[in-house]
Amino acid sequence: MKLLGQKFSIHFLSVLTFLLCASALSAQNESSSRHPVQKPFSAPLPPETFTYPDAEPHVLPSWVEFGRGEMAVQEKHYGQAVNDFRKAIERKGIYPEAEWKLAEVAGINGDPLVEAQLLRHSLSEAGLLSVPDDKWAILYTLAKVEEQLPSPGLEKKSLAMDTYREILSQDPDYEALEAGTGLGGYDAAFFTKPGRFVYQSTGKESFTSQLTGLNRVLYLYHHPVDFSLKAHQELAKLYLENHAWDQAEVHALYALTAIFSTVIDAVQAQQPDYVFHSLNDFFRNRNSPVFLGIDPSLQSHRGPGSANPGWMSRWQDIWDFLKRSKTDETLATLDFALRGIEKRDSLFTPPPDNRRTARQAQAEVLGWLHLIFPKSPWNAILRHEAQRTWIN
Question: What is the Cα–Cα distance from 359 to 366, expressed in whole angstroms?
């Protein structure tokens, strides 16, 4: 019995061990089916060679596809970028930013016609842009692309000109001006001969002066820079190409008025009692409390790179703005327009007695350009142009 009991115990333990092992294996299989083993994370391959599991593309949100497309553009994998942006559009349905990026890729690949079509498509969805002001960037990009396309009308680069006019049509201040006197008032103020006038600022001092040219325009008109500034500047240059000298002149004048109006506002923010008399206050009169140039007493031992250079900390933002706004180029555009007017007037109709000649106006413009931007390359360009007959 003792031996039998030992055998029974051995068999019983063997069976029990087998059952426990089988139960453990079954539990492990069930756990594996419910909780798949996580594979270690691995960095994605470059966009051109990266492949997803079959199910993954259907769950990626549109913004992820958009981000992958931007990364592919940076890495110059343009085919992959197109795929990613199109997937982003498929996910979201309407995605103007992705259409804009597709246009960028088309431009990189040298297809301006497709680029223009995609930009127009993006503009048709502009109401859903995450940043509404991106609309202006798209329009300006479109105009530059359209300068490369054939012109359907009589004007050179007519498509681009129409797009710039489209931008201006959405500027309420400019539209109000066009509904009234138009830009003719700018032309009249700019060309009026010097004469004694009494100027009265609302709620401020009155003064007698012989304002003429840009100073007279700035006293009569005031509108700081907005989104349409570049449209006026680019239109002025395109009017030059079309020999529409008067149109080039008034659009350049409008742009300069916006730029210098902004300067006046910035100066008055620091000097609230200042009343605008002349651009001389800013750029010529060193004794003026709002002179924007370098103080002669600081010039010898303080400069732009030194600690607390005085005038830099106070007025540097204005100088940065003048440069960023391409003020010197706009003055040069106005000079070119005046040359065209001078040439035309000498061949056809001289100006009336109450108007300055185009040559007199040109001398003023060149004076401001040299005074405000003595190191601008436009000074040398205009000197070179003056030595040849450039108007056909």
Answer: 10
